[in-house]
Design a protein that fits this description.
Length: 322
């Protein structure tokens, strides 16, 4: 399906010939924010929103040039054994002298301006470099998951960019996972599936993020089968108290397993959720109960502390045997 957002500005009521297109733009942004697939007529108060939008876009251009983007990393563990399975890289923006900005607040603007392409390439390179750095510092190899938006995937040359970043950083393809949302199956689905097949052929792992929240048609799963499926945290929100969400989460796990996929639960916050997810055979877990996303150096400390405690646990077990 195609969505279309229209902004309307009328001459001469809504400005002279210099302002008219800008004001139509402001109305279009309002229509988009209202959920899209609709139109809006310009009103003078929309000017403020437009100014905000333009200065955000300007600031983001500088953010890239000044190196204000950062990655945080959140661990994913094996649901049964508790072993570390990998980390997810999550983008942060730290403007100088200002509070840190979360991705939901600026990724839409990166996409609207096309800045998501250089920003996305930066994220990929940085994430691959980081796992190689951890390896060089003596940690066991971990895989890294990187979020990729539909806009990035549709960029010509995306597959080549991934290939060259892997080559440049020396990371083996199987240690890279790309997390995609179901929106990639809405527009240009055929092209996207071809692209995903090329990535899979290279050995890169693919995951469907926020499963069950985007696009209700499941038919895409039959012509393209990702390796991993991530249950959206909204389905865990009431896990443990017998609500419908549990039935949905349980069905998603069964569907994923039925199609030969790994199932990951994200946003795991409570022991009750862990019990429930283990009970239904969920494969991996990620969430604040384990660790929130951390800067690279802090995640390294977390990893070392975990390895240390596992070593002493093993030593204690051995000691108990003799
Ligand atoms: P996502 O890929 O589904 O990432 C999971 C989000 O859940 C992250 O939010 C993470 O911080 C949050 N989270 C993890 N554990 C918990 C928990 O226990 N409780 C709660 N309430 N939340 C938890 P974050 O970092 O704000 O990222 C939001 C979204 O922004 C991501 O959702 C992803 O779609 C997008 N994003 C992040 N980094 C990138 C990137 O580099 N590129 C692209 N294209 N999108 C990105
Ligand atoms: Mg993700
Ligand atoms: Mg998600």
């Amino acid at each position: 399906s195609l969505a279309c957002s229209v902004g309307v500005a009328l001459y001469p009521d809504h400005g002279d010939r210099h302002q008219l297109v800008m004001h139509a733009d402001a109305a279009m942004y309002t229509a988009k924010r209202a959920g899209g697939n609709t139109y809006a007529l310009f009103e003078s108060r929309m000017n403020e929103g437009l100014q905000d939008q333009l200065s955000l876009q300007q600031d983001l251009r500088h953010a890239l040039e000044r190196g204000e983007l950062q990655l945080h990393y959140q661990p994913k563990i094996d649901a049964r054994l508790g072993r570390l399975q990998g980390v997810e890289a999550l983008l942060r923006w730290q403007p100088e002298g200002k509070p840190m900005v979360m991705p939901d607040q600026f990724i839409p603007a990166l996409e609207e301006t096309g800045l998501i392409v250089p920003a996305g390439a930066w994220v990929l390179r940085e994430a691959c470099n980081q796992v190689m750095t951890w390896r060089a510092r003596g940690l066991p190899p971990v895989s890294v998951a990187v979020n990729v938006s539909a806009r990035q995937l549709q960029q010509r040359g995306f597959v080549d960019t991934v290939a060259s970043i892997l080559k440049e950083t020396g990371l083996e393809a199987r240690y890279l996972e790309l997390e995609l949302t179901e929106t990639i199956f809405v527009d240009n689905a055929g092209d996207n599936v071809r692209m995903l097949r090329r990535l899979a052929d290279m050995g890169v792992s693919l995951a469907i993020d926020d499963f069950g929240t985007g696009h209700s048609s499941l038919s895409y799963l039959s012509n393209f089968s990702p390796r991993t499926q991530k249950i959206d945290r909204s389905f865990l929100s009431e896990a443990g108290d017998g609500s419908d969400n549990i039935a949905i989460a349980r069905a998603i796990i069964a569907l994923g397993h039925g199609m030969g996929m790994y199932v990951v639960a994200e946003g795991v916050e409570t022991e009750a959720q862990v019990d429930f997810l283990r009970g239904y055979g969920c494969d991996q877990m990620q969430g604040s109960l384990l660790s929130k996303p951390l800067p690279a150096d802090q995640l390294e400390q977390w990893l070392r502390a975990r390895i240390q405690s596992q070593l002493s646990l093993n030593a204690a077990r051995r000691a108990a045997l003799v």
